[in-house]
Structure formats: structure tokens, C-alpha cells
Amino acid sequence: MADQSRTIEPTVNLLLNAMGQDARAALLEKSRRTPIEVGEVLFRPGDAITYVPFPLIGTLSLVAQPDDMPVEAATIGNEGAAKLPSALGSGTASQELIGQVTGEMIAVPIETFTKHVQEEDRFRDLVYGYVEALVVQISLTAACNAVHHVNQRCARWLLQTHDRVAGDTFGLTQEYLGVMLGVQRPSVSIAQRTLREAGCITFSRGSITVVDREGLEAAACHCYEMIRAGYSRLVPLRDRR
Q1: Is the dihedral of CA 160, 80, 235, 114 positive or negative?
Q2: Domain count across the chain
Q3: Rounded CA gap, 17 and 12, in Å?
Q4: If we measure between CA atoms, which residue out of 52, 137, 133, 54 comes closest to residue 89?
Q5: pLDDT of 7-19, one tens digit each?
Q6: Rounded Cα–Cα distance for residues 8 and 104 (Å)
Q7: Does 66 have pLDDT greater than 80?
């Protein structure tokens, strides 16, 4: 994992910002800023969790691979952190974690993370609430992939990603979107064209732009709002700066 030699205090990650200033400064004392690169594998199943990633800009993807067919289980952005269940449990990764959209994250050493969970009541409550919200997202994503049309699922995924990036345009290939949705490229092409013809998005080679957010929300299944409501209910992400 590439990193820089300085610690930082975030102003973007909502989970970290919900901490008290002193507690956050202590948590980040040995942390590092590191880039998120599309397709970069941060952890594979069985890898030891050496740090906890807190995205600032861009997104990470938790990926399961049943029958060697990779499918996204959860999108993780600046609302929280990745690999929390593994960090709090066995200490080893159970699913693959990859870079989804280019950006930056904060890598908090696992020893520092677990120490603060044990000693800081506010941080522990935030982390446990976030883990529960993440379980809600994973469960609803699995159900959504099983019962909803690919066009609806595509709209949901684009909304979740749009929530977590800076601006309306982000890098995305049809091949990569197919992995996220667990479908073949022709199905992705049809879904993208349908959303473009509805005026919700435009796309060019390697990038996509959300041009009608309300239209995209109307095109998505209700799973998007259910996931968002889960985070709002379980994680009190108020700015504590």
C-alpha cells in the first residue's frame, strides 16, 4: 500500500468527524493518507487486517466471489470505513476489498483502531452503529441483486456512488460496473442506454455523469432509500469539530 509520511486531520470522513476533536487527533496520530486506485486490491480473503481504511474522496468496494463470479456486497465511502467487522473480530479479511472510484483514504493502524474502540465510548458507539448499518447495506444489496431488474440495480449503484464522490462525474467502465452488479457487459450496456435515454446520465468511455439526480432516484428500486435510511438511523454522523 502506497502512503505518505505525514499524519492528517480529516474534514471529509463523516465517521471520523463525528468524534470529539481530541479523540480524533489521538486516533490519527499514526495514520497515513494514501490514494485509492481503481481496481487496486487492498485486502484479499485471509489477509491480516493491518490497518482500517477511512475513505475521504472516492470509494471502496467489498466484493464477494461465489463461483468465481465477483459481485459487490457493499460500497464504502466517506460516510465510514472498511473492514470493521474483520478488524473487530478475527483480524483477517473475509472478503476482497478493492478500489472502486479514484480518491484518497486515511489508513489507521489496526492497533490504534482497536485501542480507541476499547477506550473511547463515543468512538465505540459510532463504530458499532456503522457496522450495523453496513450489515443492512450488505443484506439489502444481496436481496436487491436477487429480485430487482438490472436497470433498477444500476440506478441504485450509481446513486450510492454519486453520494460518495466529489462532483457529478466519476470514472467508470462497463466492465467494472458489470462486476459491481454481477452481470455481463451486454446487460450493463442496455441499462446504461436506458438511463441515458431517460435523461438521467451521460457516459463516455471510462466515465459517467449524473445529469438528473431526481430522475435517477425515480429509476432506482426502493433499496437505495432503505440503505440510506439505515445509515441515518444507526450512525449519528454529526460534525463534532
Answers
A1: positive
A2: 2
A3: 7
A4: 52
A5: 445 468 989 988 8
A6: 12
A7: no
DSSP state, residue 92: B
Q: Residue 60 belongs to what domain range?
A: 14-144
CB 160 within 8 A of CB 224: yes
For the chain, give the mean pLDDT.
Answer: 86
List, in order, residues 6 or more apart from 230 with CB less than 8 Å away: 133, 136, 137, 140
The CA-atom distances, in angstroms, between 177 and each of 54, 74, 143, 188, 208 are 23, 13, 18, 7, 11
pLDDT digits (tens, 9 = 90+) for 80-89: 999 998 889 8
d(CA 99, CA 88): 22
In a domain, 8, yes or no: no
Which CATH number fits the domain that encloses residue 102?
2.60.120.10
Domain check: are 109 and 158 in the same one? no
- What lies within 8 Å, CB to CB, of 111 at 6+ separation is none
Which residue has cell 460518495?
164
Are 63 and 78 contained in the same domain? yes
Most distant CA atoms of the chain, gap in Å: 53
Q: Copy the grid coordinates of residue 85.
A: 467487522
